[in-house]
Amino acid sequence: MSYMFTNNRIRPNKLQSKKDKKYHSDYAKFCLSTMDNFIYRRYINRCLVNWSFFKGGDGQWIFDEDVESFFLDESGDVRNRLKMTENIIRPMVNQYVGNAIRLSYNAKAQATSDFAINAREKELKRLKFFEQISEQVPEFDSVIRDRIPLGNTPIETEEIFENSWIDTHEEDINFLLEFVSKEIDMEELKVQLTRHLAISGLGVYKGYEQNGRYMGEALDPLFFFWDMTAKKPDLSDAEYMGDWYYMDTPSLFEKYQDISNEDRKRLEKHASSNSADIHKIINNHYSASNSKIPVYETYWKDSEVHEYAWVLDPYNYPYYTRINHISSEYTDKDIIDAPTDVHKEKLNGNKKSKIYVDVLRYCIFIPKYRKPNKVTIYIKEYIYLNIWYGV
After folding, report:
1. What's the pLDDT at 284?
2. Which of 21, 53, 194, 345 is most open to solvent, judged by the fewest CB atoms within 10 Å of its CB?
3. pLDDT: is 51 or 7 the higher one?
4. Shared-domain flag, residues 161 and 237
């Protein structure tokens, strides 16, 4: 785990109106401080043990108490016993991985909206119309059949339509799914996620946008943290979660294009210094290259008050939606009366209402260096170099 941030931090107030850079950085540090607890450390240690037994051989003896109890007798002398082991963990994990490899990724999208159904029915009605014309005016039958796929009977026409009808939006989405699966190398991700799930009990897939392209990767659970009070298998009830990683400066500059030239110089200077070895993970079992920089990404559920009201959507239907917001095209001038008495009663005679909604906030930051105490070499505080935040 990371030992960079002090524990027992006070969580920032989610009801405060000003949620600026300081609020995001303070909340991010609060989330990171929660890693310093017994449950999380126990999980990390158990993952290490599982990985060691998966490795087998001498690699499974990673703790002193294991080595001492096995090789030493009561007087503390070496017994000179031979280690005879049979690795039963690796075959089980490899079996799970093999099953994942054979699992085909064939996800398909299917249009179910009213607009898609209406477009389909409209096209089918058009075919039936031409079928009636061909029956009523035999002179046009050959001309119509050259241009329109008709059967000999109405049932056959419907069957031809069912086999030939293609929703263009549905087709484009399926092409996109296929492209993304190849772009992120889904076959390799299946292996990594299954191995992590079998050994660490947690498979974490992270998808994100980078420079206009969709990126995906399988996170190592040892570099992932979350709200330890979450109970659902997918951690959807977690209040916060995040991950951290090391990046070289070329990758960092490519991923975060909005870094100023001055900050690029500071990051390059930081990466060239011999200070990255202070960032350790999991009892010093992992350490990064001195030329890489730690980056922390934190995400948490937050609360905001939004205004909602009834408006007319582009199809002239009553629509209850958010207004007077940067992500909404509707304002006070678009408000209409509630369509039913029940809705009017809920509004208590008002035109609009205020609703508390949960939103997802994030903070991505890079610690520059640690500021040492004048007396000792221990950590005093962190100076943060860059912070990206938003909702």
Report:
1. 47
2. 345
3. 51
4. no
Q: How confident is the model at residue 202 (pLDDT cuts 50, 70, 90)?
A: very high
Taking the C-alpha atoms of residue 180 and residue 174, their distance in angstroms, rounded to an integer, is 10
Tokens 């409209």 sit on residue: 122
Instruction: Using alpha carbons, select from 251, 259, 239, 275 the residue that is nearest to residue 371.
Output: 275
Both tokens assigned to 8? 């027992």
pLDDT for res 311: 94
In a domain, 361, yes or no: yes
In a domain, 287, yes or no: yes
> Is residue 381 located within the same domain as residue 250?
yes
Asked whether residue 89 is assigned to any structural domain, the reply reads no
Q: Is the dihedral of CA 195, 199, 201, 204 positive or negative?
A: negative
Residue numbers of the domain that contains 299: 228-391
Question: Could you give the number of structural domains in the chain?
Answer: 2
**What Cα–Cα distance (Å) separates residue 268 from each residue in 272, 287, 381?**
6, 19, 21
CA 24/CA 20 separation, integer angstroms: 6
For residue 246, give both structure tokens: 């090391």
What are the pLDDT digits (tens) for 275-306?
A: 544 444 444 455 556 678 888 899 999 998 99
| Residue 308 near residue 322, CB atoms below 8 Å | yes
Q: CA-to-CA distance for 206 and 313, rounded, in angstroms?
A: 34
Residue 365 domain flag:
yes
